[in-house]
Design brief:
Elements lengths: L2 H11 L20 E3 L2 E3 L5 E4 L2 H4 L8 H11 L13 H13 L6 E5 L2 H18 L7 E5 L8 H4 L5 H7 L7 E3 L13 H19 L3 E6 L3 E2 L5 E2 L3 H13 L2 E5 L36 E4 L11 E5 L1 H5 L20 H16 L2 H15 L1 H4 L4 E7 L2 E6 L6 H11 L2 E2 L6 E4 L7 H18 L1
Parallel strand pairs: 3-15, 5-6, 5-7, 7-10, 10-11
Antiparallel strand pairs: 1-2, 2-3, 4-12, 8-9, 11-12, 13-14, 14-16
Helix pairs in contact: 3-11, 4-11, 8-9, 12-15, 14-15
């Protein structure tokens, strides 16, 4: 199949996500034939460095041999069996391994297919928990301003994106938002930590007034992705945990995008500072949320999979003789064996290749070589958390995101700006030479647009 043939047939038959299809009359789709490492290749052999990990899912490169082998092995054993009344080894092994890696106390895994499904599960599970415990009035939720937690109706009710709210707000429940600790909004001279604590005071005021009707507070730890990679000080997570405990409200940590090593630790919640200094020997501190949501990178970018992890206390609230007290939620492909094997292979790579330490070295290298980009007069708010980088570009050009995307393709880069925010979220297998290319060519794009 040629590039032209694939483009014609795709436009005729495929309705693409979050896309105004009419734009593709003038902005062609990018046809991809194959992938290898950080690279995607079209049918004419042109290549593109996947600097956004194909919507933040790919951790260890396209066509990774270890993950390929695991899925191939599983194909010869069991492709799928329903998880209602049945079980299988990949689902059990994955749940056990995640319980060892996650913040302490999260010993129960509920499987789903994607991030929005994980959000739906956590919201329903939280509200149902309070109902089972004699507090049915606790059925409302709060989230951060500019938050994103998915696009199904329940997830949209805790998502604060104007475009979605305008289109679908009439279909969703109204839930309140509290100020985002995004340090870009700090007052002049105010530190990121002080601003985070100021925002936590606003959270406290809201909880004081409304905790009797609140089931949970849902938050993207450390980085709000769709808000333009809004980054904030981890002290906010510590205060959120303390306040939720104080007022009897669940804390849902949406680590769909920021988990699996993306922020520098396996889970972003680990970076919350302790309430007081701990001995050097005590590592892995942070906070334990009531619900931890995992998706995207969990399967290495191979297969749809999400996990909601929760505590014994929440699990016990559903353990009863009556069916109505059980958690009433299911997906046809819950705990799919192929997806679970891909996830197990992904976790193998973390351990075998000491990925978190390697990522710290790669992040330090990219930060060094990005100095010209950081200092460019058209660049604002250059920032980094783990393996995520972002900055704003002051540009006189209308339609910045589309122009930047097009120029990037000409430079063999896949970038997907959000408004005037350019970000990098590359696969962890990116090499120093590839980082050199990414930064150098992005600088050319900025110079053309700023």
């Amino acid at each position: 199949m040629s590039n032209a043939d694939l483009l014609t047939r795709s436009l005729a038959a495929v309705w693409h996500p979050c896309t105004q299809m009419k734009r593709h009359e003038t902005l062609p789709l990018v046809p991809i034939q194959r992938g290898q490492g950080v690279w995607l290749y079209d049918f004419d052999g042109r290549r593109y460095l996947d600097a956004v990990s194909s919507w933040w899912v790919n951790l260890f490169g396209h066509c990774n041999p270890h993950i390929n082998a695991a899925i191939t092995d599983q194909l010869g054993k069991l492709e799928h069996v329903m998880l209602a009344g049945f079980t299988h080894e990949p689902a059990v092994r994955l749940a056990e391994r995640l319980a060892q890696l996650a913040p302490p106390g999260l010993g129960h895994c509920f499987y789903a297919s994607d991030g929005a499904s994980a959000t739906e599960i956590a919201l329903k599970m939280s509200a149902h928990y309070w109902r089972n415990n004699g507090k049915p009035q606790k059925m409302n939720f709060i989230s951060l301003q500019n938050s994103y937690h998915g696009e199904t109706l329940g997830a949209l009710s805790v998502t604060d994106v104007a475009l979605f709210k305008d289109a679908y707000g009439g279909l969703t429940r109204h839930n309140a938002t509290v100020p985002s600790p995004d340090w870009r909004h700090a007052a002049a001279g105010e530190s990121a930590q002080d601003y985070a604590l100021r925002c936590a005071e606003a959270l406290e005021r809201h909880l004081q007034q409304h905790h009797a009707s609140l089931a949970a507070f849902i938050v993207e730890p450390l980085v709000q992705g769709a808000a333009g990679m809004a980054m904030y000080h981890p002290v906010y997570l510590r205060r959120a945990r303390e306040l939720c405990d104080q007022y009897g409200v669940h804390l849902i940590a949406d680590e769909i995008a920021v988990g699996m090593g993306r922020t520098g630790t396996m889970f972003a919640c680990e970076q919350a500072p302790p309430p007081q200094p701990l001995p050097q020997s005590e590592r892995g501190y942070g906070i334990t949320p009531d619900f931890l949501l995992i998706s995207k990178g969990i399967s290495g970018g191979y297969l749809p999979l999400s996990v909601v992890m929760t505590t014994d206390e929440i699990y016990r609230a559903f353990y009863a003789d009556e069916t109505a007290r059980g958690f009433l939620h299911s997906h046809s492909y819950t705990g799919n064996p192929l997806a679970c094997r891909a996830a197990l292979a992904t976790l193998d790579i973390f351990g075998q290749d000491n990925i978190l330490a390697a990522n710290r070295s790669k992040a330090a290298y990219l930060n060094r070589i990005a100095a010209p980009l950081r200092k460019h007069p058209g660049v604002r708010n250059f920032r980094n958390t783990g393996m995520i980088w972002a900055f704003e570009v002051e540009s006189p050009h209308a339609g910045f995101a589309q122009r930047c995307f097009t120029l990037a393709l000409e430079q063999e880069l896949l970038l997907r700006p959000m408004g005037n925010t350019v970000y990098f979220m590359p696969p962890y297998v990116i090499s120093e030479a590839e980082m050199d290319m990414l930064v150098e060519r992005t600088l050319h794009i900025v110079e053309a647009l700023a």
